[in-house]
Write a structure and sequence with these properties.
mainly alpha, 3 strands
Length: about 90
């Protein structure tokens, strides 16, 4: 999980975030006041676009996809892509 993204999504007043782990992150607002992070909210947050990132990592390269279309047609390509789409469905 991207902690910075989760903090920004669950704490609207946060403007800057320094640190990389729950133990050392300091978030501040517009007035440079520290914002107390509700880690229960942050840890429960899920990125509604995560399926896109997961799919992008697993899809074959464009070159391989075009080769798949050339050798197996559009239906063959669709079958190849469907495996990843089914593995990471839209939520």
């Amino acid at each position: 999980m991207d902690l910075h993204k989760a903090i920004r999504a669950t704490h609207n007043s946060v403007v800057t975030i320094n640190g990389s782990s729950q133990n050392n992150i300091v978030a501040t607002d517009n007035n440079k006041n520290e914002v107390i992070i509700n880690w229960t909210l942050v840890n429960a947050w899920t990125d509604q676009n995560q399926y896109k990132y997961d799919r992008a990592k697993e899809y074959p390269s464009i070159v391989d996809q075009l080769d798949d279309i050339y050798h197996n047609g559009i239906d063959g390509w669709k079958a190849t892509i469907k495996i990843t789409k089914d593995k990471y469905p839209k939520e």
